[in-house]
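hey so u asked for the seq, here:
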Amino acid sequence: MLRLDGDAGGGQLVRTALSLSLVTGESFEMENIRGNRSTPGLKAQHVACVSVAESVANADVDGGSEGSSTLQFDPESVTSDPVSVSVGTAGSTTLVSETLLPVAVAIDDPLTLTVTGGTDVRWSPPADYLRYVKRPLCSAFGVSFDVDVLRRGFYPAGGGRLAVRIDPAKPTPVDLLGRPPLDGIDVYSVASEALADASVADRQVEGVRTALAAEGVETPVRASVAYDESTSPGTAVVLAARCGDVVAGFDAYGERGVRAEEVGAQAVDAFADWYRTDAPVDRHMADQLLVWVALAGGRVRIPAVTEHVRTNLDVIRAFGYDIDVRETDGGAVVERVE
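ran it, C-alpha cells below
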C-alpha cells in the first residue's frame, strides 16, 4: 500500500490519488489530508469523489467520511456500471467528474456518471469549462467524454445536476509545447432565470467585449447567452480561447455587489495574463493535465510551476510515473520520461 502525505496540498491530491488508484489498481493510504488548510480533512465534495471511485472499483475504503484526515483506498476491478452521487448543497460536481475521467484508460465500455450539487461554484471549474475547454482539448489526444448540464446549481443551495459519459480510450501522447495563433474566443455566459430581467448574462458578455478591446485583442468573439432555472441565483462566464486544436479557458463568477460587466472583465484579466505567455494551456488546465502526461506520455508547456503542480507531481511520482519538470523563461515543460 502506498503511503501518501496530503498535508501540503488540497483536494487535488485526493482526486489524483483516487484517479491513479483506479487506473493502476494500487491501494494507498493518505494521511494529513488538507492538513495545511484552516479546516483540515475531507469536505463533502471530497467524500463524493471517494464514493464514486469506491463504486467504480468496488473498493474497500476506510476514512472516507467528512472531516477525516486519513483515507485508505483499496480498489478491486474497475467496472462500467452507471454511478450517481449527491455532493450536497453546492459542492462541486465538476471536480467529482474530474476524478473519474482518467478511468477511460481502464474501462471496456462507456461509463456514465450523474452528480448532484453545484455545477458553477467558486474554487472549481464551471460546467462550461468542462464542456467547452477540457473536452475538446482532451479529444486532441484521444480522450472522449460528453457533458450534459441537466440543471444549474449555484452557491449556496446547489441542486444542480451534471451528467458525464466517459468513453474507453487509448490516448496518444500529449503534445502541447507550442501555442498556435489565436483563432477566436467563444464566450459562454449563464445566469439564473431570476436575473433575466436585469440582462445579467448579456451584460457579462458586454464586459468581455469591452475588456478585450481595452487589451487591444482583435479576434472574432462568439457569444452564447443562457438564463437557466436554478434554486439559488447565480452567474458564471467562461472564455474559451481557440488556438488551432488547443483550447485555453478562463472564468469568473458573479457575486452580490459586483456589476455583471465587471464579472466579464475579470475573466478577460485572466485571459490577458495567459496571453502574454507562450503557454498553450491555462494555469488550471496545467494542473489537470499532469495525470494525462503520466498516463499517455508526451509533454506540455505550462505557465508556471505552482505549489499545486509540485504537490500533485509528488503524488503522481509515488504511483511510479517518472515525470520530469524543466523550468524555462516564462513557464516550464512537464514531460514523462520513457
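The two ends are 24 Å apart (CA to CA). The chain has a mean pLDDT of 96.
lmk if thats what u needed
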